[in-house]
DNA sequence: ACACGCGGTGATAACGTTTGCCGCCAATTC
DNA sequence: GAATTGGCGGCAAACGTTATCACCGCGTGT
């Protein structure tokens, strides 16, 4: 009932440890008859290879560390799920670290994972600047890919949604619906999603007139901020509120309804990410869906094909195309009402 | 730049590997002067102990496997967060497995974790019956505690919220608000949360009259079911809809509003769990808050104090008290309106 | 016939730690 | 002054695997 080791199987099948290892790992050709005997003995004894010993010898743990800012951020669970599945499909296990949105904790967790000899790291950095050092030093030791958020240019490979394209989809949709006075509610700070989305708004809002790009309020990525922002912009009567993510949009929606505004008649609202909450809001939120499964698959793939501690020469940046999901908050089904 | 090992530190500090190991691990008294030299050398070379080697030798990986049905279930992220923090505080890393609500996957993941020599397992079982075998066989090899859901009596230690007490709080609240015709919308199936909550409703609804315990509809734990259930029960005009979890309640709330019902005036709605969504619903949902942090702390503690592969003698079952969170869906602040 | 190659196998040395055991030297005890 | 501690430190054996090397026998090419 204790631990069955290679030795035990070897003894039971009358051959050497080396041979047993070889037949079980299929690492080198071995006699058909011997193979059968060995496999049978292994089966009979219920042999399970000790992954720790295997890892020590082969210098590969079959483990990747997943480091993220806050698992409670509703965008992440779906991503984590897809990553877990993608990695498990390759036989790799996932070590999880929740950083509590703190760069110091993040650095500590990355270090701990390195000590545990993870084969690779998947990092969703907490911050653009504050995370850079930890990421940069980790990148020298294992394959690492950045997810969802960047960390400065040339630091590591990264895969994320094309925020600019997503925002462009939103603006295009608004223009097509005849909206004229959009207002942007975004997030301050240096996180790449925040920066890219507000830059894209500024770049694309010109079609609504020269003043449009300047109509923006910056706070953080929270429901509370969405509510507060509406209080500040509502007096100037926008006919569209473009939010930098779904949480902000949900807050905006709530406050607008409290103020008696007609959504989507008088003013429409859009989000970004398409978290589960978006479809549940009332009215359901028009938003930009991130291709979560593809993001995960791409990240996992990149991780595999990356030289350990590769030089700074060839950083890849993958940007995946998002998709506009039109729901009631911009008038879908309004005609039928 | 490569791997700095104990040997290197030993060479650099002019003493043996054994001594270095001892000063770094503090496992045995060692000369003050030697200790200083060694520590200095270790620091200078940037020595980091190889956890894999350590694990192989000491037969402890400092790793626990966390196995859950679906990370995308909005109740879990908060729990995962607390567990990760609690375990990390003890220096243990967390391997994560998402089972996609499938008992077969669950068994596979548990097996994989065992092969990886996890020190312990934390399992939120997918199903009461289907998960039993995998859990029972794992329990023989490592400390294991069941979380949130049970898995049959005597299989393993478990910690969960006191569902009966939570439901009692709800019924008490409804009675105090003068409600007379409650209706229960729950989940069929054998998951312990489903069973216990509906049993508690049946047991406690007697105060609303002899018919009350029988006024129930059973489906699953989803928003869609919440919507559908309302369509079935609304014709008989309940003045309270008691839901088995927040997702159901959110669906019910949506449908009731679509049907033009006045919530909370005409009919009140309650949920269970207090997921983030609950506070965001409109009207905000009265619900039963699970003590997530305490659940996690208790589970982590139990895990530590459990003999490896302990006999079936002494299974502990911890039930933590929930808390009623009263919000607008049962009329909080209504008087002020 | 001889050398050569090659499929199949066994010993054995790693991988980087922890730890049991033994020996050394100084300090204490009779 | 010799014997007995007891604190410190080194040697070497594990932990369970994989990888390297050598070996053995047999078929093949010249």
TrEMBL record, chains A, B:
Which InterPro entries does the record associate with it? HTH_LacI (IPR000843), LacI/GalR-like_sensor (IPR046335), Lambda_DNA-bd_dom_sf (IPR010982), Peripla_BP_I (IPR028082)
**UniProt cross-references to SUPFAM superfamilies, sorted A to Z:** lambda repressor-like DNA-binding domains (SSF47413), Periplasmic binding protein-like I (SSF53822)
Which keywords does this chain's UniProt record carry?
Answer: DNA-binding, Transcription, Transcription regulation
Alphabetized Gene3D superfamilies for the sequence: 3.40.50.2300, lambda repressor-like DNA-binding domains
Query: GO: which molecular function terms?
Result: DNA-binding transcription factor activity; transcription cis-regulatory region binding
Key word Heme present: no
Transcription regulation found in the keyword field: yes
Which stretches are annotated as coiled coil? none
Against Pfam families, the record matches this protein to: LacI, Peripla_BP_3
Recorded hits in SMART domains, A to Z, give:
HTH_LACI
Start and end residues of each HTH lacI-type domain? 4-58
PANTHER family per UniProt = HTH-TYPE TRANSCRIPTIONAL REGULATOR GALS (PTHR30146:SF109), LACI-RELATED TRANSCRIPTIONAL REPRESSOR (PTHR30146)
- What's the protein here called? LacI family transcriptional regulator
* Phylogenetic classification of the source organism: Bacteria, Bacillati, Actinomycetota, Actinomycetes, Kitasatosporales
């Amino acid at each position: 009932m204790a631990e069955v080791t290679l030795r035990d199987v070897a003894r039971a099948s009358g051959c050497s440890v080396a041979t047993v290892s070889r037949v079980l790992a299929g690492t080198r050709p071995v006699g058909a008859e011997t193979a059968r005997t060995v496999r049978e003995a292994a089966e009979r004894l219920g042999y399970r290879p000790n992954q720790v010993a295997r890892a020590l010898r082969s210098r590969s743990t079959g483990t990747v560390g997943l480091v993220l800012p806050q698992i409670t951020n509703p965008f992440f669970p779906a991503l984590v799920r897809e990553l877990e599945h993608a990695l498990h499909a390759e036989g790799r296990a996932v070590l999880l670290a929740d950083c509590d949105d703190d760069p110091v904790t993040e650095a500590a967790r990355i270090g701990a994972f390195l000590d545990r000899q993870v084969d690779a790291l998947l990092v969703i950095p907490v911050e653009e600047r504050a995370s850079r050092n930890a990421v940069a030093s980790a990148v020298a030791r294992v394959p690492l890919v950045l997810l969802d958020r960047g960390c400065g240019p040339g630091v590591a490979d990264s895969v994320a949604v094309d925020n600019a394209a997503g925002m462009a989809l939103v603006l295009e949709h608004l223009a097509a619906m005849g909206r004229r006075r959009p207002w942007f509610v975004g997030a301050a700070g240096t996180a790449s999603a925040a920066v890219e989305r507000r830059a894209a708004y500024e770049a694309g809002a010109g079609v609504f007139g020269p003043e449009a790009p300047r109509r923006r309020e910056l706070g953080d990525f929270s429901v509370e901020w969405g509510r507060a922002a509406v209080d500040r912009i509502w007096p100037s009567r926008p006919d569209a509120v473009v939010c930098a993510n779904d949480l902000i949009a949900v807050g905006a929606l709530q406050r607008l309804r409290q103020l008696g505004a007609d959504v989507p008649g008088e003013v429409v609202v859009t989000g970004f990410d398409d978290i589960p909450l978006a479809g549940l809001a009332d009215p359901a939120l028009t938003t930009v869906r991130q291709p979560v499964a593809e993001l995960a698959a791409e990240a996992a793939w990149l991780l595999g094909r990356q030289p350990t501690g590769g030089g700074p020469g060839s950083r890849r940046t993958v940007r995946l195309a998002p998709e506009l999901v039109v729901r009631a908050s911009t008038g879908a089904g309004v005609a039928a009402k």
